[in-house]
Amino acid sequence: MGSHVMLNVRNKHAADREKALANGIKEVVAELRLVDVVDYVAFLRMDHLGNIADIVESSAQLYLAPGALRFAGGGDVHLTWGSAPTIDLDMEFHAPDVTVHFRLVLSATQAGVQINYIAFAEPDADPASNTARLEAAISGARLRTAG
């Protein structure tokens, strides 16, 4: 039999990008966590995904430019008798020159971001430069509040 090698495709740039995205949408995530977990369970199990899209849109409009953050029409519920529920939502972040497809993981005490795919309009050969572009896109998508 042949050997199987698992490649570690995660790298510093992926972690930095996930951290930047998580920080950029943290207020939206706080709003999403105000929704009762049983509602997410019901919407995902009953395939009422439009309800989740509406929740995401109304939460995002308080902090981000229209269309910057969207529910991507999928998700999972992790619910067992012996543990707290976890809700996974497929999400998209869109800016003029960058698109990110990611999974938002919501639990009782924390939330996380796992980037599945990222595309830059014209990617730079330097990954750090692309990370900086993502950070600028997130900053540019955030609504400025008076004060």
Give a structural overview.
By secondary structure, the protein is of the alpha+beta class. The chain has one domain. It contains five helices and four strands, in the order ααααββββα. The chain has helices spanning 12-24, 26-32, 37-45, 49-60, 127-141, and strands at residues 69-78, 86-95, 98-107, 111-120. The protein has a four-stranded antiparallel β-sheet with strand order 1-2-3-4. A hairpin with a 3-residue loop joins strand 3 (98-107) and strand 4 (111-120). Helix 1 runs parallel beside helix 5 (127-141) and helix 2 (26-32) packs across helix 4 (49-60). It starts with 11 loop residues before the first helix and ends in a 6-residue tail after the last helix.
In the sheet with the most strands, the strands line up as 1-2-3-4
What would the principal axes of the Cα set say about the shape? globular
Number of strands: 4
Largest sheet properties: 4 strands, antiparallel
CA-based gyration radius = 17 Å
Per DSSP, the total helix count is 5
Q: How much is the average pLDDT?
A: 91
Pattern of helices and strands: HHHHEEEEH
Query: Which residues sit in consecutive blocks of at least 5 with pLDDT less than 50?
Result: 1-8
- The helix content, as a percent range, equals 25-40%
For the record, the count of structural domains works out to 1
Q: What portion of the residues fall into strands of 2 or more residues?
A: 25-35%
Protein structure class: alpha+beta
Cα distance spanning the termini? 66 Å
